[in-house]
Amino acid sequence: MTIRTISSREVYRNPWTSVREDVIERANGQRGIYGVVDKDPASIIIPLEKTEEGEFVYLIEQFRYTVGGRFAEFPQGGWERADVVPEELARGELREETGIEAERLTLLSTLQIAYGVMNQKHYVFLAEGLTHGEADPDAEEHDLVLRRVSVAEFERMLLNGEIVDNCSVAAWGLYKVWLEHGRPAR
Predict the structure, then answer these.
(1) In a domain, 186, yes or no
(2) Would the pLDDT of 154 be above 60?
(3) Helix residue ranges per DSSP H, 27-165
(4) Which of 40, 73, 111, 168 would suit a FRET pair with 176, their CA atoms being 20 to 30 Å apart?
(5) What is the C-alpha to C-alpha distance for residues 89 and 12, in angstroms, rounded to an integer?
(6) What CATH number is given to the structural domain containing 88?
(7) What is the arithmetic mean of pLDDT over 25-49?
(8) Are residue 46 and residue 31 in the same domain, yes or no?
(9) Cα separation of 133 and 175, whole Å?
(10) Do the beta carbons of residue 84 and residue 150 sit within 8 Å?
């Protein structure tokens, strides 16, 4: 390892997040501190619908407190538990936020979210064969708006800065690579 942990202490915890401060030693012998945000695994889902009119994706629009604005993104989230079955988590988050059930879920890959400061796995799923029902959002998600947009419109939103969620952008890029190669990355 190029960095060795000398000591670690938790400095903050709530039901969603814990923050720790580690004293570290680098390969060159210099010591320092590293702040790490630990979060349980999450999933992000690309709900893709193919119709005679074209291809569409479903986005969630909601207010994001940390950046003070409403933004559109793919459905995503976690259950504040380390012991999740990735597909169950993805199905649950999709149903909770959108009311959509998927006939097929394909795990495209597992990514890390902002690993310069955070330790959180993010399972990326493609959802196909969609049927619609009633959403059941958490209290924090009371303002969710479900949006159906064409793939062309979604990609325009990516390029003009309307979609700023890096996880949604990464998931779409992963999906495009998966399409080109014809098989899941993992």
Answers:
(1) no
(2) yes
(3) 86-98, 151-159
(4) 40
(5) 26
(6) 3.90.79.10
(7) 96
(8) no
(9) 25
(10) no
pLDDT tens digits, one per residue of 107-151:
999 999 999 999 999 999 999 999 999 888 777 777 899 999 999
* Residue whose tokens read 């119709």: 51
- Note whether 9 and 71 are same-domain residues: no
- Assess whether pLDDT exceeds 50 at residue 185: no
Among all chains, which residue has been given the structure tokens 């708006």?
145
> Which residue range forms the structural domain that includes residue 53?
42-181
Distances (CA, A) of 54 to 51, 60, 70, 83, 127: 5, 20, 27, 38, 16
Task: Kindly state the tokens that stand for 105.
Answer: 């879920």
Q: Three-state DSSP class for 65?
A: helix
Long-range contact pairs involving 7-13 (C-beta distance under 8 Å, separation at least 24): none
Q: Looking up tokens 């947009």, which residue turns up?
A: 149
Same domain, 139 and 159: yes
